[in-house]
Amino acid sequence: MKSIIVITGASSGFGLMTARALAHAGHTVYAGMRETAGRNAPRVTEVRQYASEQGVDLRAIEMDVASQASVDAAIAQIIANHGRLDVVVHNAGHMSYGPAEAFTPEQVAALYDINVLSTQRVNRAALPRLRKQGRGLVVWVSSSSTRGGTPPYLAPYFAAKAGMDALAVSYAGELARWGIETSIVVPGAFTQGTHHFAHAGTPADGVVAKAYAAGPTSDLSEVAFKGLAALEPVDADPQAVADAIVAVVDMPFGKRPFRVHVDPSQDGAEIVNGVADRVRAELLRRIGLEDILHPRVVA
Question: For 4-293, which CATH superfamily applies?
Answer without folding.
Answer: NAD(P)-binding Rossmann-like Domain (3.40.50.720)
